[in-house]
Amino acid sequence: MSLLFLPLAIGPWQIALIVVVVLLLFGGRKIPELMRGLGSGIKEFKDASKEDEDEKIESKK
Questions:
Q1: Residue extents of the structural domains in the chain
Q2: Do 34 and 26 touch, CB atoms closer than 8 A?
Q3: Sign for the pseudo-dihedral over CA of 28, 33, 38, 43
Q4: Alpha helix (H) ranges present in 1-61?
């Protein structure tokens, strides 16, 4: 395995550690707000990419 991809190998212990660190940094009350913001950002990205795809299809007609 290349050293380039070694940091990308994330196991269950690493995920648990990340979750604990996030809880300590942001607290339990702030996390739902962060997730809502992340969800709305992903939705906006999907909508924008779909609009771009629709424009490409219409321009080919």
A1: 28-61
A2: yes
A3: positive
A4: 12-60
Q: Which two tokens stand for residue 8?
A: 């990308």
For residue 31, what are its two tokens?
Answer: 């996390």
Pull the structure tokens for residue 6.
């070694």
Note the Cα 38 to chain centre separation in Å.
Answer: 7
In the block, residue with structure tokens 């070694």: 6
50 CA to centre of own chain: 18
Among 18, 22, 42, smallest CA distance to 32 is for 22
pLDDT by 10s per residue, the chain, length 61: 455 555 667 788 888 898 888 888 888 888 888 889 999 999 999 998 888 777 777 776 6
Per-residue DSSP letter, 6: G
Task: Note if the pTM is more than 0.90.
Answer: no
